[in-house]
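Moderator note: this is an archived Q&A kept for reference. The question asked for a predicted structure of one protein chain; the sequence and the answer are reproduced below.
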Amino acid sequence: LVPKCLSCHSAGRAEKGVRFDTYVATMKTVSAGAPNASRLYTQLTAGAMPPSGRLSEAELNQVRDWIQAGALNN
C-alpha cells in the first residue's frame, strides 16, 4: 500500500477520510478473513483505486491473500 496509496491516504492527505498510514486506520477498510467484504480489496479489484492505474494481478493477489489470512499486523 505504501507506494500506491499513501500519497493520497495518509495523515497529511486523507482522501475521503481513508488512511493507510497505520494498521488501525487500514483496518477500517478491511474485514479480516473476507477479501470480498473488504472495502480496500473491492475498490482495488474494481479498478477504482489507485487513480494512477490498476494494481498488477500479483499485487491484487498479495492484498487478497493478506486479508484472507486474517490481515495480520506484520
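Archived answer notes: The beta strands are 9-10, 13-14.
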